[in-house]
Amino acid sequence: MPAAPNIPLGVRSVGRDELLKGVSIVSCHKNFTQLFWSVAGAGSFLREGRWYEQTPGSIFCYEPDSIHELTVKSDKWCYCWISFDHKHALNWLRDFDIKPGTQDMGACPESLFIEIADALQGCTLEGECRAAQLAYSLLLKASQQTHSSRPESLPSRFKALLDQRFTDPNLSLNTLSEELGVHRSTLTRQFSATYGMKPSSYLHNQRVQRGLNLLRSNKNQIQEIAHAAGFQDPNYFARAVRKATGLSPKEFQLS
């Protein structure tokens, strides 16, 4: 068992493999999220009946409860890998625009994989927290490299707008869908598929979290805090706070 089981990006394991031509790993069921990053050579992964070719700089992600199967295509195939077993790990990868399947990410940052392995030695809480920090850096590096070489996806553009403007009480999903030039239902479907929740729920959660932070940090009137968090109706804000905390805004402010 991990020393810190509740870290959403907690690293289960990490490693580096060098496989020779003709080697295959067949039908191995794994119940965790695993990311592979090719260093040299070529190989392929099987997912849902389709083979995904891997070359240096490409990554492949298996979602939890999937069957892992791979084969070597060159004289030698080298890759680094990292696995996460928290139930929300796949959502973290999706937030970095990393999805099940193959993507081209550029040169593998082998030094980061080595640092993560060093951090996990000893199975300590401090080491696992350090490994989680390094894993975040790893995913951030992958995200930066892939975004520099291809257009930003529609869901990620939509999420960025929500993150920038959620405190505007007049912001609506219809307004953003018009700005992006797509139908609201299309935007909702793609966002939900990418992030695992409806955009309306994401917007609401962002506003509630901002409201709770403001209640903690200042003594302004509840109506002012509600508006600053993006709520038009202070009464609706009060109901949202009570649902999230079991307390009224004033009780939470004074707690």
Automatic annotation (TrEMBL):
Presence of keyword GTP-binding: no
InterPro entries: AraC-bd (IPR003313), Homeodomain-like_sf (IPR009057), HTH-like (IPR037923), HTH_AraC (IPR018060), HTH_AraC-typ_CS (IPR018062), Tscrpt_reg_AraC-type_HTH (IPR020449)
Pfam families cross-referenced by the UniProt entry: AraC_binding (PF02311), HTH_18 (PF12833)
Keywords: DNA-binding, Transcription, Transcription regulation
Keyword Transcription tagged: yes
Domain HTH araC/xylS-type, chain residue ranges per copy: 156-255
Gene3D superfamilies named in the record: Homeodomain-like (1.10.10.60), Regulatory protein AraC (2.60.120.280)
Superkingdom assignment: Bacteria
PROSITE patterns: HTH_ARAC_FAMILY_1, HTH_ARAC_FAMILY_2
Designated name of the protein: AraC family transcriptional regulator
Species this protein is from: Thalassobacterium maritimum
Source organism phylogeny: Bacteria, Pseudomonadati, Verrucomicrobiota, Opitutia, Puniceicoccales
